[in-house]
Amino acid sequence: MSAGSVAVVVTEEIGLPSWELYELSIPLTVFGKPQPDLAEHWYDLRLCSTRESGAGEREGEGAGEKEGAGEGPRGGGDFGLSLRTPYGLDGLVGADTVVVTSVPDRCVEEGAPLPPGLADALRRAHAAGARMVSLCTGAFALAEAGLLDGRRATAHWMHTAQLAARYPEVTVDDSVLYVDDGDVLTSAGLTAGLDLCLHLVRRDLGAHVANQLARRMVVPAHRPGGQAQFIDLSVPATDDEGLGAVLEWARAHLDRPLTVDDLARRAALSPRTLYRRVQAATGTTPLQWLLNQRLARAQGLLESTDLPVEKIGELSGLGTANNLRHHFLKQVGVSPGDYRRAFFSGQDA
């Protein structure tokens, strides 16, 4: 498996808002630091500036200096920073993957034009065979370039209505963490961008490498793209407390064949009312919540015990070893055996 080259667009170099640095740092962290013990050939990362003078200022400098974000951040107003990068927009063409982490706020909120040349450079990169990726508001750049027309895409839920209104040819889904449409991928904001970048590593280098990298970054090994990006927790405190006791009881009895009716009786609620409250509090259905808890229990047992898979399936409530493998592959992306080899600590839970 090959990692290939990744070109990251830096769309604003003067007064880059500090909150946008988070999204910019995600691909730098995932793709920019070699992991020789995980893969012999890691990604070849380059930063590409929308500022015309970005590349020229760095001509003649050593290759080692080009591996990072230029000569480093300089202080800016409003807690912003400026970056100087070794490449201009021409650096996008020829990359295997192009990542746009964000666009300037004025392009989203005020409908201001994108930085000059960006949309054209994105079109040329895609025509040359690049896989196109956006994090958060970077979707506005891909949409402006016409690369999302006729496709399903997402962005941070705070901006999806603007994206849909401005680009009616795009099918905008405001409920998911990320959308993988083959050669064009989009994610919601902030940590969802990390989920998408790890998803790319999983596609390129396999589940084992992606899971090991996630463990080093102390983040979940795999959150499926279809998982909700926004969960409404605004339920009354009294309801939270009552529901919380039932959910804690369920966690303590995951080895039992629990049903929605069982939880409803425990909560002294009708099944329909319980369904609504669980969905409001957790963002998912009662049965999916139970499955998630059982998978989490199985993960913990795989990490901390040498119990056979059959016993772990029984203790977690997932039943047979085959059923455990099925759900593990579907939800976690690896088999229970591969997961244990990657994460086994040898310490009892």
From TrEMBL:
Protein's UniProt keywords contain Lipid metabolism: no
InterPro entries: Class_I_gatase-like, DJ-1/PfpI, Homeodomain-like_sf, HTH_AraC, HTH_AraC-typ_CS, INH-QAR
Chain ranges of the HTH araC/xylS-type domain: 244-342
A molecular-function term among this protein's GO annotations: sequence-specific DNA binding
Region feature (Disordered): 53-77
Alphabetically ordered keywords of this record: DNA-binding, Transcription, Transcription regulation
Keyword DNA-binding in record: yes
Basic and acidic residues bias spans: 54-69
PANTHER family named in the record: ARAC-FAMILY TRANSCRIPTIONAL REGULATOR (PTHR43130), HTH-TYPE TRANSCRIPTIONAL REGULATOR RV1931C (PTHR43130:SF3)
Protein name: Helix-turn-helix domain-containing protein
